[in-house]
Amino acid sequence: MSDEEVERLRALDRYRLLDTPREQDFDEIAEAAADLCETPIAVVNLVGDGRQFFKAEVGLGVRETPLESSFCRQALLQEEFLCVPDARRDPRFEGNPLVTGDPGLRFYAGALLRTADGHPVGTVCVLDTKPHDLTERQRKGLMRLARQAMGQMELRRSLREQAEQRLLNERILDGASDYAIVATDPEGRVTRWNAGAERIMGWSEAEMLGRPVDAFFTPEDRADGRPATEMALARDRGRAPDERWHLRRDGSRFWASGEMMPLRDQGGDMIGFLKILRDRTAEREAGAALQASELRYRSLVEVSPQVVWFADADGAVSYCNAYWYDYTGLPAGETGEASWMGVIHPDHRAATRAAWLTAAAGGQPYEVEFPLRRFDGEHRWFLSRAQPVRDRDGTLRSWIGTSLDIHERKIAEQRFQALTTLAPAVIWFGNPDGSLSYLNDRWYAYTGQTPEQALPLGWGEVIHPEDLPGLLQAWDHARMHAVVYDTEARLRRHDGAYRWFLIRAEPMRDGGGRVVGWLGSNSDIHDRRQAVEDLRGTREQLRLAVEATGTGIFDYDLVADVLKWDTRTRAFFGLGPDDPVNLEVYLARLHPDDRERADRAVGAALDPAGGGTYDITYRTIDPNSGIERWVSARGQTLFDGDRPIRLIGTARDVTESRRAEQVLRETEERYRLAARATNDAIWDWDLTTNHVLWNEALQTAHGYRPEAVEPTGDWWIDHIHPDDRARIDASIHAVIDRTGTTWTDEYRFRRADASFADILDRGYVIRNDQGRAVRMIGAMLDISERKRAEEHQRLLTGELQHRVKNTLAMVQAIASQTFRNAADLEAAREAFSARLISLGRAHDILTQSSWTQAPIADVVDGALAVHRGEAASRIRASGPNVPLSAKAALALALALHELATNATKYGAIANEAGTIDLRWHVVHEGVAPRFCMTWSEQGGPPILVQPSRRGFGSRLIERSFAAEVGGEVRLTYAPTGLTCRLEASLASMQEASDEAAA
User: Fold this and answer.
1) Fewer Cβ within 10 Å of end Cβ, the chain: N or C?
2) What is the pTM of this model?
3) Which helix (H) or strand (E) holds 983?
4) Helix (H) or strand (E) holding 615
5) pLDDT digits (tens, 9 = 90+) for 747-765
6) Mean per-residue pLDDT for 292-308?
7) Which residues of 104-142 are buried (b: 16+ CB within 10 A; e: fewer)?
8) Beta strand pairing status for 41-47 and 51-58?
9) By C-alpha distance, which of 108, 109, 123 is closest to 153?
């Protein structure tokens, strides 16, 4: 036997298919080959040592024949395919007993089964007892079936080898050790104390619940604040590893490695800490021996064809073999969590880390599958498994793990899942007791049943009553004798119609040959009886569907370079039914801006390295009418090996949808510009995710930079004034949680500078078909200026009311005092008018300053203007500029008017020589400054006798000045003339708050 034949037999033996039972997948390939080539005999043949074994056969009736008379022996000498149209006319077979004798074979065609490394191991072949020939389609189809058979063989070999590898890994992983898991609340009080903690440290859970975690830290660590430090590190960094001495209940110490991690709820809020400890006292004492042992073991695993890794008792990876670094491209020796998490596919990192932490925390075996990034960027699936290593007393000391490349197995599983999903037949799994555990979607779509109705025994309800007894009898017989289950029955469709199905199942066996289940399929054979009629109906339905959807069809024969378009596709390009069509016409009628892109799309579809998909939207231009259309074309390239042979697909006129998209883009742009132009803060709240989008006005109107805004409804609620928050929360949810669609309310909103803006907020609720609120859009209008204007108006109204009341009261008091004891009504009337004029002038001065403050000089000039006349130079006034409040100004104006009137009648300006000196100043002595004004008369008629009674003017001065500003009035009647001193605190002369409050 040649070396080449020895290698070929070894390659065949790796598949372990010789002398195995029939399998449905191979049987269906043989059946498909017979149907395709229209022959009575079809075989999936494996050529062994001196014999050929038929893994599947149709029409032959045997499972094995000698190799001497085999046609397939000749097929092995061919490159890919052997066809013998008439064996009697072929010198290689004219003396073959299978040709000259029974069964009298005349025709043979076989496609080679070749392994990935080039070894021919068998054929998928068809035979007939009469001469025959194959069409090109049949030849290619037979070769495709051979590739499918080879794929099934590779799949089974891969799954078997992976199962064997997994079993080997499971036997490698052994050992276990104890660990302690302690959970605390955010303040460090124990909330969970597992059995491992009790075994390691001696305290029971009942003793430790509620106690500070400090209890098992050493006194020196407690004094250094180590427990608080670990909690702070865990909270800030996500983990706080440590390795140090700890205390047991009996006071003894043990060396432990551990890690503290934060516990967070689903919202991310801290709910406590988790600390994992492992007693490593013995390891510390035996560290040298363990290190030497690990060195020897690492020497063995360095040559392992899979990733081997070690981790300490806390789950921290401490070692990876060379395979890991060769595969990932990471720096040798890098074992940190960030490095190995970084090469796991982002979609699987969180789940992988959670599975590892759960296993490490519980000391349980770890198993997870994830894609791992190779050094060149490609991701491949790996199965990672780990076992805890424990010492003799059960203490968890470390972990040993492996990561096995299962990419081919995962792809095979995905393909199998896709096959069961996309297969036109019903696929099912049966249990040994006759019940079913799985039916693919085809069953539910056909019958209308739900999984709850069909499984495990409800599937029998759709069997035709006349067929059910025979079906059950065949099913019981197959299960009893562990043989192929094969029967036909009518199944009721969801609309009540019955169709014939071929129902077949193969027993699935474990390693010991025991039947553990059944893999079956139900194939619709109803159409075989009406094939021609149904084909015609199908074509008509396709034509109607194309007509109804306005879809055109194109077909490009790449071998013959012939492009065919139906009438509708021609119309898209402005062509008539008889106009020539070719690739040049196609490119010439494309919009100039789209030609290069369309050409690239065709090139990509024809590239065998790609998926063969053609999908593009382009514009066509009719050169005659100038009409421009948008066309969406989709197609698929058919390949013969790596050679593209045909591109077929559909085309649709999408001009209207493109215009609608343009309108939508313009609408969105207008909305964006409007949102940017307005000062309203526009918000869009996704109620299903609590996510909120804001426009730029949130920054321009309220000062919040985008990165400072948390995009949640909680952030918005948190920035509402505390006094308004509960009311607004209840107000908006009253609309959201009920059936309303509009909401409006006012509240105060905290700006970025901590000030509050008055807001009028309005929103509109969008609900789904079930009436549930899913989205809310609204705008916040800043009405702070309006609120301030309203408040100012209110204050002005109050001020006006107050001033009118005060003025009327003052007029009433002046009138009462003027006319009460008047001997001369005409004189009293003149005095009353003069006093009102003085009061009016004071009012004029205050009105000019909006009744806030008036300069003292203006008040003095206004009060004395009527008395100065030609004696202006005889009344001298001087003093600093002191602004006076409204009350003080009115009181001072009346006082000065009374003094000037008295001086005109009896005092300094009653003659031609008298003068008046009016001076005021502010005295800064004592606690608070005081205002002082002095009225001094000289040169008038001498005062020879002190007044016997006080007149109204004196009383008015004293009462108004004292009552309005709390001041003091002192009148001195010296022979040289009257002196009046007015004195009050400066604050009372300038204070306006009481007036505004009134």
Assistant:
1) N
2) 0.28
3) strand 977-985
4) strand 613-621
5) 999 999 999 999 999 999 9
6) 72
7) ebbbbbbbbbbbeeebbbbbbbbbbbeebebeeebbbbb
8) antiparallel
9) 123
